[in-house]
Amino acid sequence: MEKPEQLLRPHAENQYQDELAKLKELDDKPRPANWQLSPWATVTYLMGGELEDGTLIEPKYFGNRRLIEIAVATLATDRALLLVGIPGTAKTWVSEHLAAAISHDSTLLVQGTAGMNEDAMRYGWNYARLLSEGPSPEAIVPSPIMHAMQGGKIARVEELTRIPSDVQDTLITILSEKILPVPELSQEIQARRGFNIIATANDRDKGVNELSSALRRRFNTVVLPLPNSLEEEVKIVKIRVEKIGSSLELPTPEAPLKEIKRLVTIFRELRSGATQDGRTKLKVPSSTLSTAEAISVINSGQALAAHFGDGTIKANDLAAGITGAIVKDPVQDKTIWLEYLETIVKERKDWKDLYRACKEIMN
Known about the structure:
By secondary structure, the protein is of the alpha/beta class. Helix content is 46%, strand content 12%. It has two domains: 4-223, Rossmann fold, CATH 3.40.50; 230-362.
């Protein structure tokens, strides 16, 4: 296996293997069957903290601790977990780290798409062996969910609502009976203790397939919100930008706090439909303007500053990224963004450079 530092995006269990090993060493709380950490240690891994020997655990999620406790408690039962929120609220991030902490394996992933078929949820076939030998256990190609059932691990299903409804319902038998029928062999795969599923979903994307009531009943749902305050969101963006910049080896100084604060202010105001002081009502664009998009805009700006500037992010390094994040609809969103520039950005002290850079991009 390659060293984590040589990979563009190491799996969570590899990137944070030292923290996981230390938590496991000091963890004396009761663990459900086949869990690598107790529920208490799992929450500590996600939320961060200081261990009894002084080891500092880096926070992976910034938000309400109770939400993570509910999610972990759900996985300790026979109920599956559904993480819901608008795009960019760290659903995938949380699911990956939950799987890493509980199973030390976050790779059992089914990525939901509009064209997915049941094989991705259940199993496929090695057709060369199928034709030469006929149906046999050796000819089966297990899905990540089958692997998780056999190993007593956590499986992850991303973008559940993008999966066609008939394929979604493949999960009903798996979640209710904890079995995966293999009718071709007149057999079934029974889940080992420790098996569970974490699914993520949002209802803001086009092409959403609603979950059937039968399937939704088999999940406990936890809604992950956007950060409560400007300060909290700025902190999240700063930490993630520094992490990503380090992994990409961008030759830039630490995350630009001033630009992050300006960007997050713009996103929060346009999301909420009002300025921070509440004095001016604003039109809301069709884009989600999530924390994840803010991180992406800053990282893009860092790359521009590092490779085509002097290394320090300036307004013109961010203008294209901000405009691209806001203007998804070329007619409606463009009008809203131009109005915001003229009525809010232009009038703010020390924001003239950002106004000019964004207007230049729009012309």
